[in-house]
Amino acid sequence: MMNKMIKKKFIKPLKSIINSLPIMFGIILLLGIIEEYVSYSRIAKLFTNNIIADTFIGSAVGSVFAGNTMNSYIIGRELINANVSLFAVTAFLVSWVTVGLVQLPIEAKFFGMSFAIKRNLYSGLLSIIVSLITVVLWRTL
Question: What is the pLDDT along the chain (141 residues), one digit of tens a residue?
Fold first, then answer.
């Protein structure tokens, strides 16, 4: 009896994961293509040297190019070397690891579209706020 219950509770999530594999594969493929063909110098050209505009641009670009924190250290260094402002780099990196518009379909499938959209909107807004506060505090220390 107990064995059947455990088996039933294991099979349902497994089926859900298997059904989501095509979406996950598509997202991974899209991220790989974007990261391969979009260079740091191309990203750096998007910025204007206006603190407010660059912060918003950094957050928007980071929201699209979702990634992991390990890559963010390298990307941050390359953007700083390309003379992108610290405000833009910070907003880019915070949204890079928290927003993820490319992953929206899989997130919506698991958690619902309403939750996925709200979480991404709030994370994008907070990436701007966190960037502004972080850089201002960093420069005062």
Answer: 567 777 777 888 788 888 878 877 776 777 677 667 777 677 778 888 899 999 999 999 888 877 777 778 878 888 888 888 999 999 999 998 899 888 888 889 889 999 999 999 999 999 999 999 999 998 886
**DSSP letters for 61-125:** HHHHS---HHHHHHHHHHHHHTT--HHHHHHHHHHHHH--STTHHHHHHHH-HHHHHHHHHHHHH
- 89, 58 Cβ separation under 8 angstroms: yes
Structure tokens that stand for 110 in this block:
């698991």
Name the residue ranges covered by the structural domains of the chain: 21-140
